[in-house]
Design brief:
CATH architecture: 3-Layer(aba) Sandwich
Number of domains: 1
Number of strands: 4
Number of helices: 5
Distance between the termini: 28 Å
Structural class: alpha/beta
CATH superfamily: Metalloproteases ("zincins"), catalytic domain
Length: 144
């Protein structure tokens, strides 16, 4: 049996605390969602870095807080890279009145939920994604 690997990589500084506990929580999130996790890389970067990825790989010319690349082979373990803009997360926290810490967790869970099959293009999908984010934010808060 493969032991899941989750790594946090910082191209920009982030005060992400309790990383070991967060990794265990993410492994459990995948289990709860019925997915088998192989390797997951989170890359925390700048707005400009993520904008370049957005342009190069997705042909989108706008800032975003997260891009998730599912590198999994069909029917195999989940293997992915998740890029998170530190600048965007901080700005969104201010805009929506959330703590920066809470907003980072929301985006971290958001990327994992995409890998579990949740979408967010249509309004109904967005609603379901927000509900799932809230569910896991609540579970995270209660797990302390």
């Amino acid at each position: 049996m493969t032991i899941p690997t989750i790594q946090f990589n910082f191209l920009e500084p982030v005060g992400l605390q309790e990383r070991t506990r967060l990794k265990k929580f993410l492994v459990n999130l995948f289990k709860k969602e019925g997915k088998r996790l192989g390797e997951l890389q989170y890359i925390f970067c700048s707005d400009d870095y993520l904008l370049e990825i957005n342009r190069q790989y997705l042909n989108h010319d706008y800032y975003t807080d997260i891009i998730t690349f599912d590198l999994s082979d069909r029917g195999q373990l989940v293997n992915a890279e998740i890029y998170i803009s530190v600048d965007r997360v901080r700005e969104n926290a201010r805009e929506y009145g959330n703590s920066i810490r809470n907003e980072f967790h929301r985006v971290i869970f958001h990327g994992a939920l995409h890998l579990c099959g949740y979408k967010d293009k249509k309004p109904a999908q967005q609603k379901e994604m927000r509900e799932m984010e809230e569910k896991y934010l609540g579970l995270w808060a209660r797990s302390t």
